[in-house]
Design goal:
This protein is α/β, with parallel strands linked by helices. The strands form six sheets. It has a nine-stranded mixed sheet with strand order 5-4-1-6-7-9-8-10-15, sandwiched between helices. α14 (about 215-225) crosses α16 (about 250-260) and α14 (about 215-225) runs parallel beside α23 (about 485-495).
Length: about 750
């Protein structure tokens, strides 16, 4: 039997009522009880697939399950005040008031309401008119909630379900789950929505990481974002703004608010009290997926009676249409999609980049195949100025933004902007297998423009890859989680700000003391990339082999080609073939001497051309010099018309010179002192004829060499493990061989008894 409603409210009873004469299954009854976790509810709702799988493809499940879950939640949330709203509407109807919205909101107790006489129970009581009545029910919501529901395009789904004879069964299934706030609190409901979205994307083989961030990761991100700000948040009358530019179902925003005003809970137990229960937290976000946006907005409407937070969740692509332009926020948090291109936003993004400092993307543009760093630039553009209190940012990305892109590339220039403006506070490497859709390595970037004085000019790296516990039951690729105690240890490492701090972690079945925190100056990750040239040295010879190479040169073959048509083209081609024959004869007439000086060979060639009375086209002359030459370190240096050595493209090399921590004055040629010292120390002793190409300069500081930044995170925590002794390895091999012999004997029946 279902547990009866504890409060006795009529609306509450409606949310828990049984189906009349058709007794629900034990599982249905269970979902009406008081002890149900979110996994059971998700499984029950997902079970609707059993009803619709013969009519709808897997990719269409979310078109049914997601909007009906939202509707059922709304139905249960409004149940207690539904009658009050209808009565108030009746009282006000004949009084000539144009706008009843404020009064009806007041009656409902929320920022939305429903004026239809229907709820889920009454809808099912009139089965013959179910489709029409359901549309009437949806139309009865206030305009702000109808805007949300329209994003589901549910009207078309109603028609399909009705035509297939499934509408009653599906709606009945949803009526059998009690989503009243008394049983399913707001955090749990948020988890239900996120779990459903994850399952939908898994069914479509899509990337659920675009929408779903595991709660353990979110809690850690929020803690890192708020780290060190407790005193600030505890101030009386504090108002804080939090923004997530790719908010998905809104989980990060809601957890951030909970950490501040309600504390950290796990399985109903309070693990950490609220920072400031009286703090006024305003949430902002933007989401590009219409269904996910609708979930986020509807969920926030139910959690905030004022509707303020829900009104701040904008729809659309944040890269091409910033719906919060001109606003700045105290805190920003995000998990942008990994490795997703930004082609659909390309025109708008490039146009904003061209605007320079007045746009969000002035520092640079990453390669079009991965837009993660664009989201970080967007967040920085919405940070408050330091004089206004500044901002703190937590963003999680994969490893690509740490090092992808050479000096001068968009990615490197973005890293350069962040590090040279001293915005990166810390990087935290997370364990693998944390996400449901991927096991790749991920990193939390903690970015702020109001660093503590001790942190200025530095970056802290935290290796938290061992801070995890195995899950009792995996969720897709998620096999590990970061429990609260380990998350707290990560935050403690950040707060401690100690270089070389260690922890005992499990390594290969044993515990080892390993370094988990490193601190470096921001310049440590920078370098100046210079181009090192060596002189071109060639020998020349009119040998049969080299003349044969000349025949393959485009400059020679083009002589017998023509773009003209008809007789004129044929005549030009004939003249070209005659010239080819003359050049061929000329080359065969040259002495077979090996020239080690280009000037001497060119003099011999020019003399032969004059004797032959030929007019040698420039492309053909270039082809001769190319085909008849070979690299020769003993040959004379090839020089240009001004007498300067010509560089050899095949010997060209680059060197990355670390940026010094202090001043780096440049000489008259624009070569920084650090570069000159590096070159004299590490290059000249080995290749004395090499020189630095001084024409390649950084566009920002004008000095020789391109400045780049990269963070090779693993390098700073690598520990060399020596190989095992050969004797030990050989012993293992012999033991394996014995096992193989024994197993073969057992299979063949020759094993000794």
């Amino acid at each position: 039997m279902a547990v009866p409603a504890a409060d006795g409210a009529s609306g509450r009873r409606r949310c828990r009522a049984l189906d009349g004469p058709n007794q629900a299954t034990r599982r249905h009854e269970r979902l009406k009880g008081e002890h149900v976790n979110h996994s059971e509810i998700v499984s029950f709702l997902w079970g609707v697939a059993d009803l619709i799988r013969d009519t709808f493809k897997r990719g269409k499940y979310q078109d049914i399950i997601l909007p009906l879950t939202v509707l059922r939640r709304l139905d249960c949330v409004l149940a207690d005040t539904k009658q009050k709203v209808l009565e108030r509407q009746g009282q006000l109807k004949g009084k000539g008031l144009e706008d009843l919205d404020a009064q009806l909101r007041l009656a409902s107790g929320f920022a939305f309401y429903n004026t239809s006489r229907y709820d889920f129970e009454k809808l099912l009581a009139d089965a013959p008119h179910l489709a029409a009545n359901l549309r009437n029910y949806i139309a009865g919501f206030s305009s702000n909630m109808r805007e949300v529901l329209e994003k589901f395009d549910f009207d078309n789904t109603i028609s399909k379900l009705d035509e297939a004879g499934l509408l009653f069964q599906v709606l009945e299934r949803f009526k059998n789950v009690d989503l009243h706030p008394d049983r399913i609190d707001n955090p749990t409901m948020g988890t239900i929505f996120e779990e459903l979205i994850r399952k939908f994307n898994e069914a479509l083989n899509e990337n659920p990481g675009e929408h779903f961030t595991p709660r353990d990761v979110v809690h850690l991100m929020v803690d890192l974002m708020l780290a060190g700000d407790s005193d600030r948040i505890r101030r009386k009358g504090i108002v804080c703004t939090v923004c997530d530019p790719c908010c998905g179902s809104g989980g990060m925003l809601m957890i951030a608010k909970e950490h501040i005003t309600a504390g950290l809970r796990r399985n109903g137990d309070l693990l950490r009290p609220a920072i400031n229960p009286d703090a006024e937290i305003h949430l902002f976000g933007q989401e590009v997926n219409p269904e996910t946006w609708a979930v986020s907005k509807s969920d926030l409407f139910m959690k905030d009676p004022t509707g303020r937070d829900a009104d701040n969740i904008a729809y659309g692509s944040v890269l091409s249409n910033d719906r919060h332009a001109g606003r700045s926020f105290d805190y920003l948090i995000a998990n942008p999609p990994y490795g997703k291109d930004w082609k659909r936003d390309e025109d708008a993004v490039r146009a904003e980049h061209e605007r320079g400092a007045s746009g969000r993307f002035a520092p640079g543009l990453p390669r079009i195949s991965d837009g993660q760093l664009l989201f970080l630039l967007h967040m920085l553009a919405h940070a408050k100025e330091p004089k206004e209190g500044g901002s703190r940012i937590a963003i999680i990305m994969n490893s690509s933004p740490l090092f992808t892109g050479d000096a001068g590339s968009g990615e490197s220039e973005i890293r350069r902007f962040i590090l040279e403006h001293d915005l990166l506070e810390a990087l935290i490497a997370l364990p693998e297998q944390l996400f449901c859709n991927t096991g790749i390595a991920t990193y939390i970037w903690v970015v702020t423009n109001r660093k503590a004085p001790a942190r200025k000019g530095t970056v802290q790296l935290v290796d938290a890859t061992s801070f995890w516990l195995p899950m009792r039951k995996s969720l897709g690729d998620k096999r590990r989680e970061i429990p609260p105690e380990k998350a707290q240890d990560i935050v403690t490492l950040l707060a401690g700000f100690k270089d070389g701090e260690t922890r005992r972690v499990a390594k290969g079945g044993t515990e080892e003391e390993v370094v988990v925190s490193r601190i470096f100056p921001a310049t440590h990750f920078g370098f100046r990339k210079i181009t090192v040239e060596r002189p071109l040295r060639l020998n020349f010879q009119a040998s049969a082999e080299r003349i044969a190479r000349f025949e393959e040169e485009k400059g020679f073959q083009a002589l017998a080609q023509s773009k003209k048509k008809g007789a004129a083209g044929a005549e030009e081609q004939a003249e070209g073939r005659e010239l080819q024959a003359a050049i061929r004869a000329l080359l065969h007439g040259l002495p077979g001497t090996l020239f080690t000086d280009r000037n001497e060979f060119e003099e011999a060639l020019d003399a032969a051309v004059r004797r032959a009375g030929l007019r040698l086209p420039a492309p053909a002359r270039k082809a001769i010099l190319s085909a008849l030459s070979e690299h020769d370190e003993t040959a004379a240096i090839c020089r240009d018309k001004d007498g300067n050595p010509e560089p050899d493209p095949e010997l060209r090399d680059t060197e990355s010179v670390p940026l010094p921590a202090g001043d780096d004055p440049a000489d008259a040629e624009g070569v920084p002192a650090s570069v000159r010292a590096f070159f004299d120390r590490d290059v000249t002793p080995h290749v004395p004829d090499a020189w630095i190409d001084t024409t390649k300069r950084d566009p920002r500081d004008g000095r020789v060499g391109l400045i780049g930044y990269e963070i090779n995170f693993n390098r700073y925590f690598y520990r060399y493990t020596p190989p095992r002794p050969l004797e030990e390895i050989e012993a293992d091999i012999r033991a394996i061989e014995k096992d193989i012999v024994r197993m073969l004997a057992e299979v063949t029946g020759t094993a000794k008894v």
